Amino acid sequence: MKAEYINPFLSATSEVLKQATQIEFKAGAPYLKNSPFPAESLVIVVGITGEIRGQAVISMGTDVAKSVASAMMMGMPVDTLDDLAKKCIVRVRKHDHGELCYIAV
Question: φ and ψ at 84, to 5 degrees?
Fold first, then answer.
C-alpha cells in the first residue's frame, strides 16, 4: 500500500468529519487487514475507479459511529445504529469521496 494512495483518503475523511460534526478526528496508522472486522464495528466500503481501482475500507467502533451520527443530527441521542444513524454516516462518506458507498454491519 503506497502512502500516496491512502493519505488523501485519510485527509479527506478527517476534514469532512470535522466539518459535519464539529469534532476533531485523528486517523490511526493505516494498515492492511486480512482478518474479519470485530463484530462491534461499523465498516464502510468505498469503491475506487479510474486510474487506480479497488476498495477503501474504513472501520470504526459502534460507539464512535453513534457519536458521529449524534453530532450530525445536532446532538440527538443515538442509542443504536438504526437506518437513520447509518444514513448520516454514509452521507459523510459520499461527501468525502463522491463515490457510491455502502455499509456492512
Answer: -65, -45
The amino acid that residue 9 corresponds to is: F
Segment 31-67, tens digit of pLDDT: 777 767 777 888 877 777 777 777 777 788 899 889 9
Total domains present in the chain? 1
What CATH number should be reported for the domain holding residue 90?
3.40.1550.10
Angle at which helices 83-97 and 3-21 pack, to 10 degrees? 130
Supply φ then ψ for residue 41, to 5 degrees: -140, 160
Alpha helices, DSSP H only, in 22-82? 62-72
- The grid coordinates of residue 99 equal 463515490
